[in-house]
């Protein structure tokens, strides 16, 4: 009751302020948001999966008491669109993603409005029921496939000091597969709880003979080049679910090359691992379309060459030789990186901006997974354009030292510039059918 009264007082005092400021016409009789009725539910839906004990975030946001000390920072991070970690431009480009973490504009405004009106607690009785979260140790894609993974490949164990620079760990591990099998889905699961906080991102290479594999001509991979990116995982990502009829081929005797990027967490780690869980198609089932993970670079022949106190833009063009559907967009830049876009120039010259990360945060290697109805269909002969923006000036608080030249390299103080994209190659007739369906849906939508 007490809290409800305080909410009323906040409303009246703001109304009075508006009157004093000559704010006639500003309707002040709507209630300002309060935690219990308006904000707790948003935090449950959009924050708590990470902001709970032993999850990836540094603090829990489960109760009003836990939220309180963070209110100013919550305002800053939400207002800057840094939290939740979803750094796509909210207007330009495709907005339908399977793993969307973003706040709706209304939710965002509610949080900002709530903080600006004194962050009132609201009536306890209106608090939503505590949300329960799934056991952090279970395989999350088990819910999708109705069973545990068919194959689990575990990295070799790693140690990490409590305080140290970034470390990389690159063991190679046998899959134990004795026959060729097609992959339907996969999940990466760092050990719990410490590994989950220390493993920043994971790149998995598939080491196998590629001779005669579908899609191998398009990617320009020769049979001799045996390791190919298999999967990229980063904080926030669970795994890959390949749409029906698509998947990746793991061959008998295949090995997995792990590339773990580790951050010290202030606590010593000993003997932790990362697991790859793989769901397989039934034996002798071959999906019609292979999915191939490609790295699309923004770099030209000059590589990365950013002078002190300068901004830079790099752009590269990639011709797509066979009809394909793009399943995701995952920009990879480091601390000087500020943004990346993916555009297509269709064979008729029409251009379309597909995805635009304009607020890149170097700690977050987000993977933006297109919803099935939105996944870009790319006709053969199209050109994909990858553009990367960098800021090596004092305007970029993440730049390690704007007085220094920045070039290509693996450490976070060096730079990179590419996007990871899963390509599903389609036969021409199926592509044409999907394209026609998409056009029809668009036309129907336009007349609604
Ligand atoms: C996918 C996981 C994830 C989600 C979802 C998420 N956060 Fe975070 N949050 C993190 C991690 C990890 C950090 C620490 C690293 C960083 O600052 O980026 C963090 C940091 C923060 C910080 C800064 C803490 C500091 O010490 O500077 C605030 C404030 C915050 N989050 C608020 C929120 C709010 C509010 C939401 C929901 C609207 C949210 N976060 C959703 C993972 C998440």
Estimate nothing, just give the exact number of structural domains: 3
Low-confidence stretches are: 1-28, 214-226
Given the helix and strand composition, which structural class is it? alpha+beta
Globally, the shape reads: globular
Bound molecules: heme C
Oligomer: single chain
**Main sheet characteristics:** 11 strands, mixed
Total strands: 24
Look at the structure and give the mean pLDDT: 87
Quickly give the CATH architecture of the largest domain: Sandwich
In CATH terms, what is the fold-level topology of the largest domain? Jelly Rolls
Rounded Rg: 24 Å
Helix percentage: 10-25%
**How much beta, percentage-wise?**
25-35%
Distance between the termini: 47 Å
Q: Briefly, what CATH class of the largest domain? A: Mainly Beta
How many H/I helices?
A: 8
Question: Could you explain how this protein is built, in words?
Answer:
The protein is an alpha+beta fold. It folds into three domains: 125 residues, no CATH class; 146 residues, Jelly Rolls; 148 residues, Jelly Rolls (Sandwich). Helices cover 19% and strands 31% of the residues. The chain is built from eight helices and 24 strands. The strands form five sheets. Strands 1, 5, 8, 9, 12, 13, 16, 17, 20, 21 and 24 form an eleven-stranded mixed sheet that branches. A hairpin with a 5-residue loop joins strand 18 and strand 19. Helix 2 packs across helix 5 and helix 4 runs antiparallel to helix 5. The longest helix is centred in the C-terminal third of the chain and has 20 residues. It starts with a helix and ends with a helix. The N terminus is likely disordered.
């Amino acid at each position: 009751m007490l809290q409800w009264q305080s909410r009323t007082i906040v409303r009246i005092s703001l109304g009075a302020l508006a009157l004093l400021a000559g704010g006639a016409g500003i309707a002040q009789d709507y209630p300002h948001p309060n935690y219990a009725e308006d904000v707790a539910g948003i935090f449950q839906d959009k924050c708590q999966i990470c902001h709970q004990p032993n999850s990836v975030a540094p603090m829990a946001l489960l109760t009003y008491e836990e939220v309180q000390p963070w209110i100013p920072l919550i305002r800053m991070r939400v207002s800057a669109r840094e939290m939740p970690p979803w750094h796509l431009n909210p207007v330009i480009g495709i907005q339908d993603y399977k793993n969307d973490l973003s706040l709706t504009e209304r939710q965002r405004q509610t949080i900002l409005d709530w903080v600006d009106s004194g962050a009132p607690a609201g009536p306890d009785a209106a608090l939503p029921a505590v949300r329960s979260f799934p056991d952090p140790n279970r395989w999350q894609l088990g819910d999708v496939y109705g069973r545990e993974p068919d194959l689990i490949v575990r990295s070799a164990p790693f140690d990490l000091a409590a305080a140290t620079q970034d470390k990389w760990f690159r063991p190679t591990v046998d899959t134990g597969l004795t026959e060729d099998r097609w992959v339907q889905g996969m999940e990466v699961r760092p050990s719990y709880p410490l590994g989950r906080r220390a493993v920043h991102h994971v790149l998995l290479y598939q080491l196998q003979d590629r001779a005669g594999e579908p899609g191998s001509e398009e990617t320009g991979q020769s049979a001799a080049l045996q390791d190919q990116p298999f999967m990229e995982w980063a904080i926030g990502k669970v795994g890959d679910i390949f749409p029906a009829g698509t998947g990746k081929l793991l061959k008998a005797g295949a090995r997995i090359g792990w590339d773990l990027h580790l951050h010290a967490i202030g606590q010593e780690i000993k003997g932790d691992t990362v697991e790859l869980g793989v769901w397989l198609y039934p034996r002798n089932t071959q999906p019609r379309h292979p999915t191939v993970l490609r790295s699309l670079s923004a770099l030209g022949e000059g590589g990365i060459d950013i002078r002190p106190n300068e901004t830079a833009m790099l752009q590269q063009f990639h011709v797509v030789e066979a009809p394909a559907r793009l399943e995701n967009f995952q920009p990879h830049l480091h601390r000087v990186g500020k943004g990346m876009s993916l555009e297509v120039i269709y064979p008729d010259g029409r251009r379309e901006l597909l995805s635009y990360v304009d607020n890149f945060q170097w700690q977050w290697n987000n993977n933006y997974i297109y919803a099935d109805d939105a996944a870009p269909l790319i006709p053969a002969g199209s050109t994909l354009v990858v553009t990367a923006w960098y800021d090596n000036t004092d305007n970029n608080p993440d730049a390690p030292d704007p007085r220094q030249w920045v070039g290509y390299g693996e450490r976070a103080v060096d730079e990179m510039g590419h996007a990871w994209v899963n390509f599903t190659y389609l036969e021409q007739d199926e592509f044409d059918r999907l394209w026609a369906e998409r056009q029809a849906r668009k036309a129907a939508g336009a007349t609604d």
